[in-house]
Write a structure and sequence with these properties.
Layout (H helix, E strand, L loop, with lengths): L7 H15 L4 H8 L3 H9 L6 H11 L3 H5 L12 E3 L4 E5 L9 E7 L16 E8 L2 E5 L2 E5 L4 E5 L4 E5 L4 E7 L1 H7 L8
Antiparallel strand pairs: 1-2, 2-3, 3-9, 4-7, 4-9, 5-6, 5-8
Helix pairs in contact: 2-3, 2-4
């Protein structure tokens, strides 16, 4: 049986209370941090008082979150992350975070393509890449240098060095964190070549 979706106003109130309790704060503690009376904050959390935008901004700041995070919609189309397969590149990608224009993108990648026998031109871009190997062995090519990263190990490198990540001895699954430039360079639409 499907439940009725929670309206945004109720969701914002639940988020405020949930974040306050997660920090172990009483109503008094949060009220002091956002310059509201404890009774006003209580009425906001319980729905007995309308939330003014200026109050919501103060509450978000006091809770260490953004106004956007407090008021974002709960209407997730699907909570299951679907893989994006690129057979030509030998890569399947699961986007674990939304593509962030100025932040970090997190993705799980399953790479089946092994390093080519003949030298190829490797890409460069500003920034740094980080990866953790979940299973298998990653062949990280950094210009002329080959680094094998085993299951449970992590690597971090400047992306101004020509680089690529391949499978070594079978498929490899990695968790990658990429800055904006890395996301554009590595997480192409299917069919594009890196």
């Amino acid at each position: 049986m499907a439940q009725d979706p929670v309206d945004l106003d109720t969701l914002v109130r639940l988020r405020i209370k949930g974040l306050r309790l997660a920090r172990g704060w009483s109503l008094d503690a949060l009220a002091a941090r956002c310059h509201l009376s404890p009774s006003s904050l209580s009425r906001i959390e319980t729905g007995h008082r309308r939330i003014a935008l200026d109050q919501l901004t103060l509450i978000a700041r006091a809770l260490g979150t953004s106004l956007d995070a407090l008021v974002e919609s709960a209407q997730d189309a699907d909570v299951v992350i679907k893989p994006i397969r690129d057979e030509a590149r030998g890569v399947t990608t699961w986007m674990l975070s939304e593509r962030a224009p100025h932040g970090v993108t997190v993705a799980k990648m399953r790479i089946t393509r092994e390093a080519p026998q003949d030298p190829v031109e490797l890409p460069v871009h500003p920034g740094r890449d980080w990866l953790t190997v979940l299973s298998g062995t990653a062949h990280v090519q950094l210009a002329e240098r080959t680094v094998l990263v085993e299951t449970g190990e992590a690597a971090e490198f400047s992306t101004m060095i020509p680089h690529a990540i391949y499978a070594h001895g079978g498929p490899v699954e990695v968790l990658v964190m990429l800055d904006h430039d890395g996301e554009r360079a590595h997480l192409h639409e299917p069919g594009e070549v890196s």
